[in-house]
Task: structure prediction
Amino acid sequence: MTKEELKARTKKFAIDTFKFLNEIEKNKAVDVISYQLFKSSSSVAANYRAVCKGKSDADFLNKLKVVDEEADESLFWLEFIKDLNISCNTIELEKLIKEADELVAIFSAGIKTIKSRNK
Result:
C-alpha cells in the first residue's frame, strides 16, 4: 500500500467514525466516549499525514508511533462501545473495529520494520 493510499484509508476511517458517532445513542456518558473516539480516530488521519513528511528515519518512527497509539486507542473505544452494548449500528461498529485492528497491524508492522532496519 502506498503512502497516498494509506493517507486516504486513514482519512476514510476518521470520516466513517464521525458518521458512526453522529448516529450513536446520546447521553452524558456516551458523549464522553464519543468525544474520545472522535479525537483518536481523527488523530490517526492527521498524524499519518505528518508521518509522510518525516524529515529523518527517527522523525518518521516517532510520528508513526503516535499514529499507532491513536489507532490502538480508537480500537479500544470501539470495543468499549461494543462491550457496553451501547445502542448503535452494530454492522458499522464491526466494520470500524475491523478497520482499526487492521490499521494497528499496519502501523505496528511499519514500526517493527523501521526498528529492524536501523539496528
About this structure: DSSP finds four helices and no strands in the chain. The longest helix spans residues 90-117.
